[in-house]
Amino acid sequence: MRTSKAAPFRVGDRVRGMSYVHPDRRRWEKPETFEGVVVQVGSGYAGVDAEHSFVWTRLADHTERQSLICETELVQPAEAEEVSR
């Protein structure tokens, strides 16, 4: 039986980490450090284990970065009232 564990981040949390670039694209793109606000949490793919789940973060310039949850750290939790909107 598979147990589900809550995601370590919520939409609205401020996080930092290293962007994920698929190995096939590393010839053209390089991983980069980032800091921003979580806009989506989850793997995006059914059956993916938590350590391979992704988080999407919006940066100050309004672009987004994808990163592995295990390579991302919480900087500041979201305010409870901001999340409920």
Keywords:
mainly beta, globular, 5 strands, five-stranded antiparallel beta sheet, 1 helix
Textual characterization of the structure:
- There is one protein chain.
- This protein is mainly beta and 85 residues long.
- The protein has 1 helix and 5 strands.
- It has one helix at residues 80-83, and strands at residues 14-18, 33-41, 54-58, 64-68, 72-76.
- It has a 5-stranded antiparallel sheet with strand order 4-3-2-1-5, with no helix packed on it.
- The longest helix is centred in the C-terminal third of the chain and has 4 residues, at 80-83.
- The chain is globular, with a radius of gyration of 13 Å.
- The model has no long low-confidence stretch (mean pLDDT 83).
Brief summary:
This protein has one helix spanning 80-83, and strands at residues 14-18, 33-41, 54-58, 64-68, 72-76. It is mainly beta.
| SSE pattern | EEEEEH
Which geometry do the CA atoms define? globular
Number of strands: 5
Our estimate of the beta-strand percent is 25-35%
- How far apart are the first and last residues' alpha carbons, in Å? 35 Å
> Compute the gyration radius: what is it?
13 Å
Question: Main sheet, how many strands, which sense, barrel?
Answer: 5 strands, antiparallel
Number of separate helices = 1
Structural class: mainly beta
Q: Which residue ranges are poorly predicted, with pLDDT under 50 across at least 5 consecutive positions?
A: none
Mean pLDDT, to the nearest integer, reads: 83
The percent of residues in helical segments reads under 10%
How are the strands of the largest sheet arranged?
4-3-2-1-5
